[in-house]
Amino acid sequence: xxxxLDLYSxxxxxxxxxxxxxxxxxxxxxxxxxxxxxxxxxxxxxxGIKAQEEDEDEEEExxxxxILDLPPxxxxxxxxxxxxxxxxxxDKQVNFNTSNxxxxxxxxxxxxxxxxxxxxxxxxLLSSLLTWYTDLWPNSRLNTELKICxxxxxxxxxxxxxxxLNYYTSLLKKYDNCNEDYINDQIVKELSLRISENCGRSxxxxxxxxxxxxxxxxxxxxxxxxxxxDNLGWKTWGSSLILSQELVNDLExxxxxxxxxxxRRVLELGAGTGLVGIAWACKWRQxxxxxSIEMFVTDLPDIVTNLRKNxxxxxxxxxxxxxxxxxxxxxxxxxxxxxxxxxxILIADPIYSPNHPEWVVNMIxxxxxxxxxxxxxxxxxxxxxxxxxxxxxxxxxHGLVVYNERSSEGMDDWGVVKYLYKEIGWDTTLTD
Length: 432
Prior knowledge:
Strand order of the largest sheet: 6-5-4-7-8-10-9
Number of strands: 10
Helix content: 40-55%
CATH architecture of the largest domain: 3-Layer(aba) Sandwich
Number of helices: 14
Shape: elongated
Radius of gyration: 28 Å
CATH class of the largest domain: Alpha Beta
Strand content: 15-25%
Number of domains: 2
Structural class: alpha/beta
Distance between the termini: 74 Å
Order of helices and strands: HHHEHHHHHEEHEHEHEHEHEHEE
């Protein structure tokens, strides 16, 4: 259970015990009017928890707040509580950088209007929270809209997660059994989201991420449903970001090569949320428009619905087709779109079962043109070392050559990961 005394040193706890005792006595006398309690507590200078000393008026702009600065569940108005919950919503993620774990200092440079728009906070809600901090429970660290909007989100930082969970559960106890109305429903909804966001990536709700790549004008937006039913294709993996940047850089480097502008057939296998294929398509469109390109991003039926949505959200559905391609039964895809080979095949993180190396090599053999290239990015997970070795052996056995190979390091939702890139093509000496 959350105990506010945990936040204070022993000397401060002695002082806080006296404050708590006085507050309890006064609360019992005025239990029917909590606003009277709040006002009286402040009027009588029982402010060891909240109010700053009067000589701290000239505080620094980056003054730190803690959980005790949030409106307590017992007394806060629903509007104030909802506003706090919206302020604690994670910022939109960019390239796996998230304010869930570390506070993003860029928030300090944003205006109140921008923050409220991003967090979907109405002026009425913000005004109700400002009234709380100026009239009902004065707090000089949170007595302006700018202070509220820039300082409360800092509580998402790593050291506050457990305390935030306790704060959320205290609110949930108050509102979960309340009579149904719109604001109570909103509070419970936001509480469920904030709690799940603090329980690790696997428990997080659906989200939209931004991916901002070098040499690419378009900022890619991908929707990721919550991870349910072990649908790993519903999230974006770090290898996709690494491979996307590799491909965008390669297209940029070779943009003046006449051969690169020739008609291109491109296939992404196991596209998931579609980052690799979408990044490639966006860069191609940036360089050459929508001409001389035929592109497919593919996955299993459960994944393709969201994949198609991401293609549409990035305005690529006029030349990028999202459809089903089952690695164990590609004939349906071939019947629908012909057996013509592809100049470029894209694959990111395809190995997470013993069967995958064989399936991946079979797909490369079936769909790669004689002079085509397959771009493969795999994470170096210790658990799948044997599968990676099997993949290399199968490539060699089928007459495929690794023309380019390099390792790199990058981030995903679970931290730093090492990756291996392979550029694969046919051994043309065997076909001459």
